[in-house]
Amino acid sequence: MTIVLILGALFALLLIRVPVAFALGGLGLGLLLIGGFSPLMAPQAVLSTLDGFILLAVPLFLLMSNVLLKGGVGGDLFAAVHAWVGHWPGGLAVATILSCGIFAAISGSSVATAATIGTVAIPEMIARGYDKRFVYGLLAAGGTLGILIPPSIPMIVYGFITEESVIALFLAGIGPGLALVVLFVLFAMVHARLTGQHSPEPAAGWAERRRASLRAAPSLALAALIIGGIYSGAFTPTEAAAIGFAAALVITTVVLRRLTWQGFREAAMEAMATTVAILLIVAGAKVFGKAITLYRIPQEISVFIGQTIDTPLAFILVVSAVLLLMGLVFEALSMVLIMTPVLLPAAMGLGFDPIWFGIYMVVMVECALITPPVGLNLYVIQAVARASLADVSRGVLPFLALMLATVALLYMIPDLALYIPFQL
Amino acid sequence: MSVFDRITGACAALSAAAFVAAGAMLTYEVVARYFFTAPTIWAAELSQLCLIWGSLLAMPWALAARRHIAVDAVVGLLPGSARRVTEAIAMAVVAAFAAVAAWYGWAIFADSFSRGRTTGSMLDLPSWIAELAVPLGFGLLVVQALIELVRALRAEAPPPATGLHE
Lengths: 424, 166
Known about the structure:
The complex is a heterodimer. Chain A is mostly helical. Helices cover 80% and strands 0% of the residues of chain A. In chain A, helix 6 (91-104) packs antiparallel against helix 11. By secondary structure, chain B is an all-alpha fold. Chain B is 69% helix and 0% strand. Chain B has 6 helices and no strands. Chain B has helices spanning 3-35, 43-57, 59-64, 80-115, 128-131, 133-153. The longest helix of chain B is centred in the middle third of the chain and has 36 residues, at 80-115. The radius of gyration of chain B is 19 Å and the shape is elongated. At the A-B interface, helix 1, helix 2, helix 3, helix 4 and helix 7 of A face helix 1, helix 2, helix 3 and helix 4 of B.
């Protein structure tokens, strides 16, 4: 009964548009006061959240990707990949996906990825005669690679609240990320062959390939530095983010000479605004999580799930359905923060690995990012392409199916995620 | 632009600068460790302070600029007058939560301050340096939420939602 009341109150607060951070924090604080627990726990939870070293990686990764965005690195990456694969069937589409995948390796955010690559790729694809719905869906879905291929802000947050290794999560994201890239590429090529809507292009010459690759080389080196540094243990994810930010500044000011002082200030303000929004939700969720644990809610839900759902397959099917439904109206990160503490104990009881479950959550969150009516990537593409939400939403459907296929693949072959962090 | 808007705007700019400073300090830390084998004792701790102060001080600005993440789907379906009512209620909830959080945050700060408690880390800074950010940030947030509440009741059009977040 208490569970229903608490969840009802939470949804009521969220639906009248109380910001998620304050809905979670306020309800948590209220529960502490009502239950006779010390309300001092609320400000303490806020402080202990912001005192987490791993969360320092959030503003630094955001600074890095915003600086790269302002420095116009998206165009270079796209031009370089395009020079190599442009003459393939659906070459522009393939180049777009690969560019999203590469940018994902230097950005922890799907919004930044969709915006950066979308700005350059959408006009070119439309001009080349691709179906516009396909183009919008491709970019909205390609952008979500940003949070599956490391670094990834939702993985940092998941690692923080579950006290799992963020490094293991990052490494576990590589396999499924590459699988999704391959699925998207295959789909783009088949789509091009079947519809024949686009005009084929001649292959770029070697001089052109060399020139374009050289311009994109600094960004590629940056991606290699970050993943290599984290993987080898040379630096922590937070330090990698700091180095990445510094390197992004060097690349955009000294090497490419495109970042202006104005652009830098905009990048810093943008990174700050997103950081504050994200970290306050994490802090609010921490207050809420503390309160519901004192009320023994996660424990009871775990017991309830244990009694009613006895196979891992049934669990994943039910949880996936719930997350897809939530994803229709909920913003991605809030979903991770609200659902993880509730679901993880039950998942571990059924024998799921917590790292695997984190990757599963991230793929489900990617779906939430592109399901209407609320999906941030839809809004980004809508804004970048000046398209209607209906067109973007319809274009996304085949890609949503591919992402759910990846979830199924991940369920059948857990090593798709777990091989790199634990066997390699 | 009111005086209070200027204050919260300045706080937001300070927050952005604090995050950039954290990046600079941690980069220096890695360089010092690998190239001069001389790790610092201050970089990690001071950049953590930047995160605490930066996140809390920018809260009121983010509320005014509609940059906090919220669920818009249902409110968007309501007619204008009903939306003003829900907006006012939502802002009252934020103000109430912020007031209570500021109150107890102040209690934690005052306790550490009077006892002279320190962090017990390498720098051994006084604990209240970090803790003061809670009552200050949430105190400013109370004022901002009340301003937004009055704006909603007076039917002043809120600035359009521009924020795109992860």
